[in-house]
Automatic annotation (TrEMBL):
Organism: Pholiota conissans
Gene3D superfamilies, alphabetized: Ribonuclease Inhibitor (3.80.10.10)
Name this polypeptide is given: Uncharacterized protein
InterPro entries referenced in this protein's UniProt entry, alphabetically: LRR_dom_sf
Amino acid sequence: MAVTECRLSVELFRPIFQEIKDSETLVSLSLTNKLFQSEAQRILFFFPAYFSTRPRQHLRLLTCLLNNPRLALLVKKYHVPAVIGPKKAAIWTLLGSVLPYMTNLKEFSVSAFRDDINLLPMEKLAFQLEVLTWIQVDSMNCGIFPKWLATQKKLKKLKWISRTPVEVPASACPNLISLEGTFHAINALLPGRDIKRLYWLADPALERSPLVGNTLDRLSGSMESLESLSFDTRVNAIHYHGLASHLPSLVLLELNGCDVESINNTVSSISNLRHIVLSTQKGYGRRDVFTMKKRADVVQGVFSRSPTLVRVDIAVNLEGSHCKVFYERWENGNRREDLVPSTDIFQH
């Protein structure tokens, strides 16, 4: 068979292509024939940042997409790389030109500093996202994002870090079911939406702020539909044990940094709790939450205080596991032999 021909149906070789994890092999296959080229490009450009993590590689990627808008249509996931130095300005400038061509984009992740946001033509972005991470590190131009967010009608999962108070139209994000954010983002988006999964991130800047005084009363009605809650307990303006009486539907509770007494009080106050996860805090060093003996004591305590509880996961420290957190799992008071990765716990 000549390299310019291919008599196989797409259904036969597509599963094989999807198992290929390196870009060089996919590029080689794309040079074989037109049908292989189409399948290889579909995978290469589905999540192009996966193969282009270095600044120079990423500049070449964006230049390629700008010169070939057809390829930009293949992009479904795009994460703006964390770049410092002279190439950062070039990447953001190119991104502003390329992003409007990614009309089929479904997942977008960006961290904006100072005037970065000005380089994105928000009014020209036609895609409808399902997953979005937006980290606004400083307070400049914060009003641009909430207005654009109101256009994302299909958004289901959002991570939003905002350091300043924000307002979002009531009609924004009608299909949002998972929210991860700091106080201001939660205060703006939780009311009026049927959110099932909430990750409440700590915000040290608000530890003593008067803004949080009546937050629980205002949000209590919106928290009644929560089924899963993760909570950063360290340096947080809200105390998690104060949330317990507002969570009648909660099934899963994750706590990042906690003490035994507060854990017991919280667990006994949540009527339908079935699963509790005790994790290390994101952004801090990997370490045991408790010693081996204390883990056993904690497990015994929470099971004795919650008749509905069936599972407890406690984070443990493993050498070489910096990319994942693994958990020791206890079910109905019995410890499992194998450890469980975080990806198996949070599948929302």
